[in-house]
Amino acid sequence: MSPKKNVAVLISGRGSNLQALIDAAKAADYPARIVLVISNVANAPGLSRAAAEGIATLTIPHKDKGREAFDGEIDATLRAAGVEIVCLAGFMRILSDGFVRGWEGRLVNIHPSLLPDFKGTRVHERVIEAGVAHSGASVHFVVPELDAGPVVAQERVPVHPSDTPDILAARVLAAEHKLYPAALRLVAEGKVRLEHGLAVFA
Ligand code: GRF
Fold this sequence. Notes:
By secondary structure, the protein is an alpha/beta fold. The chain contains 6 helices and 9 strands; from the N terminus they run E-H-E-H-E-H-E-H-E-H-E-E-H-E-E.
Protein backbone atom coordinates (compact mmCIF):
# COMPACT_ATOMS: atom_id res chain seq x y z
CA MET A 1 0.00 0.00 0.00
CA SER A 2 1.23 3.54 -0.75
CA PRO A 3 2.13 5.62 2.29
CA LYS A 4 -0.80 7.45 3.83
CA LYS A 5 -1.17 11.10 2.84
CA ASN A 6 -0.83 13.70 5.60
CA VAL A 7 -4.05 15.69 5.83
CA ALA A 8 -4.91 18.90 7.68
CA VAL A 9 -8.50 19.90 8.34
CA LEU A 10 -9.45 23.58 8.65
CA ILE A 11 -12.55 24.31 10.73
CA SER A 12 -14.41 27.15 12.39
CA GLY A 13 -17.03 25.36 14.46
CA ARG A 14 -18.80 22.13 15.31
CA GLY A 15 -16.50 19.78 13.42
CA SER A 16 -18.89 16.94 12.67
CA ASN A 17 -17.35 16.48 9.21
CA LEU A 18 -13.92 16.57 10.85
CA GLN A 19 -15.12 13.76 13.12
CA ALA A 20 -16.27 11.74 10.11
CA LEU A 21 -12.83 12.13 8.54
CA ILE A 22 -11.08 11.22 11.80
CA ASP A 23 -13.25 8.10 12.17
CA ALA A 24 -12.68 7.01 8.55
CA ALA A 25 -8.93 7.52 8.88
CA LYS A 26 -8.80 5.00 11.72
CA ALA A 27 -9.21 2.17 9.21
CA ALA A 28 -5.90 0.49 8.40
CA ASP A 29 -6.56 0.70 4.66
CA TYR A 30 -7.60 4.37 4.62
CA PRO A 31 -5.12 6.29 2.44
CA ALA A 32 -4.91 9.42 4.61
CA ARG A 33 -4.13 10.35 8.18
CA ILE A 34 -5.30 13.54 9.91
CA VAL A 35 -2.14 15.15 11.27
CA LEU A 36 -3.34 18.64 12.13
CA VAL A 37 -6.55 20.57 12.76
CA ILE A 38 -6.49 24.35 12.46
CA SER A 39 -9.31 26.64 13.56
CA ASN A 40 -9.66 30.38 13.18
CA VAL A 41 -12.00 30.34 16.20
CA ALA A 42 -10.39 29.66 19.58
CA ASN A 43 -13.18 27.68 21.20
CA ALA A 44 -14.46 25.79 18.16
CA PRO A 45 -15.95 22.48 19.39
CA GLY A 46 -14.12 20.68 16.59
CA LEU A 47 -10.81 21.45 18.29
CA SER A 48 -11.85 19.39 21.33
CA ARG A 49 -12.91 16.52 19.07
CA ALA A 50 -9.44 16.48 17.48
CA ALA A 51 -7.62 16.83 20.80
CA ALA A 52 -9.64 13.94 22.23
CA GLU A 53 -8.33 11.80 19.36
CA GLY A 54 -4.73 12.82 20.02
CA ILE A 55 -4.51 14.99 16.91
CA ALA A 56 -2.44 18.20 16.96
CA THR A 57 -4.60 21.34 17.03
CA LEU A 58 -3.87 24.98 16.52
CA THR A 59 -5.89 28.20 16.59
CA ILE A 60 -4.86 30.86 14.11
CA PRO A 61 -7.12 33.88 14.73
CA HIS A 62 -8.10 35.91 11.68
CA LYS A 63 -8.84 39.07 13.63
CA ASP A 64 -6.52 42.10 13.62
CA LYS A 65 -4.60 40.98 10.54
CA GLY A 66 -5.09 41.13 6.79
CA ARG A 67 -6.23 38.14 4.78
CA GLU A 68 -2.78 37.67 3.21
CA ALA A 69 -1.12 37.57 6.64
CA PHE A 70 -3.73 35.13 7.98
CA ASP A 71 -3.43 32.86 4.94
CA GLY A 72 0.36 33.12 5.07
CA GLU A 73 0.35 31.88 8.67
CA ILE A 74 -1.84 28.94 7.75
CA ASP A 75 0.26 28.13 4.71
CA ALA A 76 3.53 28.19 6.66
CA THR A 77 2.02 26.01 9.40
CA LEU A 78 0.73 23.45 6.90
CA ARG A 79 4.06 23.25 5.10
CA ALA A 80 6.04 22.97 8.35
CA ALA A 81 3.80 20.05 9.38
CA GLY A 82 4.38 18.20 6.10
CA VAL A 83 0.73 18.44 5.10
CA GLU A 84 -0.07 17.11 1.63
CA ILE A 85 -3.84 17.60 1.39
CA VAL A 86 -6.02 20.25 3.05
CA CYS A 87 -9.71 19.65 3.80
CA LEU A 88 -11.97 22.59 4.57
CA ALA A 89 -14.79 21.44 6.85
CA GLY A 90 -17.03 24.28 7.96
CA PHE A 91 -14.13 26.75 7.64
CA MET A 92 -15.84 30.12 7.50
CA ARG A 93 -13.09 32.26 5.95
CA ILE A 94 -12.54 32.90 2.27
CA LEU A 95 -8.98 32.00 1.33
CA SER A 96 -6.93 34.30 -0.90
CA ASP A 97 -6.17 33.45 -4.52
CA GLY A 98 -2.49 33.01 -3.66
CA PHE A 99 -3.21 30.44 -0.99
CA VAL A 100 -5.65 28.58 -3.22
CA ARG A 101 -3.16 28.47 -6.10
CA GLY A 102 -0.43 27.25 -3.77
CA TRP A 103 -2.57 24.26 -2.80
CA GLU A 104 -4.19 23.71 -6.18
CA GLY A 105 -5.43 20.16 -6.55
CA ARG A 106 -4.67 19.43 -2.90
CA LEU A 107 -7.35 21.65 -1.32
CA VAL A 108 -10.95 20.42 -1.05
CA ASN A 109 -14.12 21.73 0.56
CA ILE A 110 -17.52 20.31 1.44
CA HIS A 111 -20.60 22.33 0.60
CA PRO A 112 -24.17 21.44 1.61
CA SER A 113 -25.80 21.58 -1.83
CA LEU A 114 -25.61 19.88 -5.19
CA LEU A 115 -23.14 22.29 -6.77
CA PRO A 116 -23.19 24.25 -9.02
CA ASP A 117 -26.65 24.93 -7.53
CA PHE A 118 -26.96 26.95 -4.33
CA LYS A 119 -23.43 28.25 -3.84
CA GLY A 120 -22.81 30.53 -0.88
CA THR A 121 -24.70 30.81 2.41
CA ARG A 122 -28.28 30.19 3.69
CA VAL A 123 -28.27 27.13 1.43
CA HIS A 124 -31.10 25.12 3.02
CA GLU A 125 -33.44 28.13 3.28
CA ARG A 126 -32.86 28.89 -0.41
CA VAL A 127 -33.32 25.24 -1.44
CA ILE A 128 -36.70 25.13 0.33
CA GLU A 129 -37.74 28.51 -1.09
CA ALA A 130 -36.87 27.24 -4.58
CA GLY A 131 -39.16 24.23 -4.15
CA VAL A 132 -36.70 21.72 -5.63
CA ALA A 133 -37.22 18.01 -5.02
CA HIS A 134 -33.60 17.15 -4.24
CA SER A 135 -30.64 18.65 -2.51
CA GLY A 136 -27.42 17.10 -1.31
CA ALA A 137 -23.77 17.65 -0.59
CA SER A 138 -20.72 18.21 -2.76
CA VAL A 139 -17.01 17.84 -2.18
CA HIS A 140 -15.08 19.97 -4.64
CA PHE A 141 -11.57 21.12 -5.39
CA VAL A 142 -11.19 24.70 -4.20
CA VAL A 143 -10.54 27.34 -6.84
CA PRO A 144 -10.35 31.11 -6.30
CA GLU A 145 -14.05 31.62 -7.14
CA LEU A 146 -16.25 30.69 -4.16
CA ASP A 147 -17.87 27.23 -4.32
CA ALA A 148 -17.07 27.05 -8.04
CA GLY A 149 -14.39 24.34 -8.12
CA PRO A 150 -14.74 21.04 -9.97
CA VAL A 151 -16.78 18.46 -8.10
CA VAL A 152 -14.98 15.40 -6.69
CA ALA A 153 -18.10 13.62 -5.41
CA GLN A 154 -21.74 14.32 -4.60
CA GLU A 155 -24.49 12.70 -2.58
CA ARG A 156 -28.16 13.44 -3.23
CA VAL A 157 -30.95 13.59 -0.65
CA PRO A 158 -34.69 14.22 -1.10
CA VAL A 159 -36.33 17.48 -0.06
CA HIS A 160 -39.75 16.89 1.49
CA PRO A 161 -42.59 19.45 1.41
CA SER A 162 -42.67 19.49 5.22
CA ASP A 163 -38.92 20.19 5.56
CA THR A 164 -37.69 23.12 7.58
CA PRO A 165 -34.15 24.37 6.97
CA ASP A 166 -33.02 22.55 10.14
CA ILE A 167 -34.62 19.25 9.14
CA LEU A 168 -33.09 19.46 5.66
CA ALA A 169 -29.72 20.48 7.10
CA ALA A 170 -29.68 17.37 9.30
CA ARG A 171 -30.49 15.11 6.34
CA VAL A 172 -27.78 16.73 4.21
CA LEU A 173 -25.30 16.58 7.09
CA ALA A 174 -25.77 12.82 7.43
CA ALA A 175 -24.96 12.55 3.71
CA GLU A 176 -21.91 14.78 4.18
CA HIS A 177 -20.53 12.45 6.82
CA LYS A 178 -20.49 9.56 4.31
CA LEU A 179 -19.43 11.67 1.36
CA TYR A 180 -16.39 13.50 2.74
CA PRO A 181 -14.42 10.39 3.77
CA ALA A 182 -15.20 8.76 0.41
CA ALA A 183 -14.13 11.87 -1.51
CA LEU A 184 -10.93 12.30 0.49
CA ARG A 185 -10.13 8.65 -0.26
CA LEU A 186 -10.37 9.38 -4.00
CA VAL A 187 -8.11 12.43 -3.73
CA ALA A 188 -5.56 10.72 -1.47
CA GLU A 189 -5.36 7.70 -3.76
CA GLY A 190 -4.86 9.95 -6.79
CA LYS A 191 -8.06 8.62 -8.35
CA VAL A 192 -9.21 12.15 -9.04
CA ARG A 193 -6.96 15.05 -9.93
CA LEU A 194 -7.44 18.70 -10.80
CA GLU A 195 -6.08 19.25 -14.30
CA HIS A 196 -6.51 22.47 -16.28
CA GLY A 197 -9.46 23.42 -14.08
CA LEU A 198 -11.26 20.10 -14.46
CA ALA A 199 -11.65 17.10 -12.16
CA VAL A 200 -10.08 14.18 -14.01
CA PHE A 201 -10.91 10.69 -12.76
CA ALA A 202 -8.41 7.83 -13.11
C1 GRF B 1 -21.39 21.60 6.84
O1 GRF B 1 -22.75 21.64 6.52
C2 GRF B 1 -20.56 21.92 5.62
O2 GRF B 1 -21.12 21.48 4.43
C3 GRF B 1 -20.52 23.42 5.64
O3 GRF B 1 -20.45 23.77 7.01
C4 GRF B 1 -21.01 22.73 7.80
C5 GRF B 1 -19.95 22.31 8.76
O4 GRF B 1 -20.44 21.43 9.74
N1 GRF B 1 -19.42 23.90 4.84
P1 GRF B 1 -19.43 20.72 10.72
O5 GRF B 1 -18.62 21.79 11.41
O6 GRF B 1 -18.56 19.80 9.91
O7 GRF B 1 -20.28 19.97 11.69
